[in-house]
Amino acid sequence: MSVVVKDMKLLSLEEGTIAVKLAREAIETYLRSGKRLNRRLKGVFEEKRGVFTTLNKHGMLRGCIGFPYPIKRLDEAIIDSAIAAATEDPRFPPVELKEMDEIEVEVTVLTPPEKVEVEDRTELPKKIEIGRHGLLVKRGYFSGLLLPQVAVEYNFDAEEFLTQTCLKAGLSPDCWLLDDTEVYVFEGQIFAEKEPRGEVVEVDLKSCRI
Questions:
Q1: Which of the residues 37, 78, 150, 198 could staple to 26 if both were Cys, CB 3.0 to 4.6 A apart?
Q2: Is there a domain that residue 103 lies in?
Q3: Per residue in 130-173, pLDDT tens?
Q4: What are phi and psi of 115, to 5 degrees?
Q5: Whole-prediction pTM
């Protein structure tokens, strides 16, 4: 049986649209002026939530950074993760303002990560539900996170998802089998532009599975 993550209040499509537009505005304001957008919103945006901003260009990842834990107000976390995704992802050069016409912005609002407990480490894959769970692996000073959509996009099964998260953390691919490796699951509510500056939709990962 997979892990049941504690419920959180879901965002409406209207709130998700606001979140994505806030992320885009934060990026474009920063790239245009070098200044961080100062925007305080009401309602769910006042709550502390984990969040990631993902940037996609022509179907390819262009940047992704966020906060796994609910340490900031959602509006602040969106602004900061969006700017970081555009300018601080070490895998890519910083985004240029003119690129934003070709980039689709995606915001994933997270539930708090919950540790997966098993007596037999080989049972870990049975606790993970593809299309529902994201993974966070921690071992010593190393940690790595993959969002729920990654497993669906690459058609991973649960074991491969664990392996890839270990590699993301800079660890050996089978480190999830070791007792002192901590494995956490979380869920994400995903809102994304269908095209650059276009309509925002909520992504249902289960319907996207191959």
A1: 37
A2: yes
A3: 999 999 999 999 999 999 999 999 999 999 999 999 999 999 99
A4: -70, 135
A5: 0.90
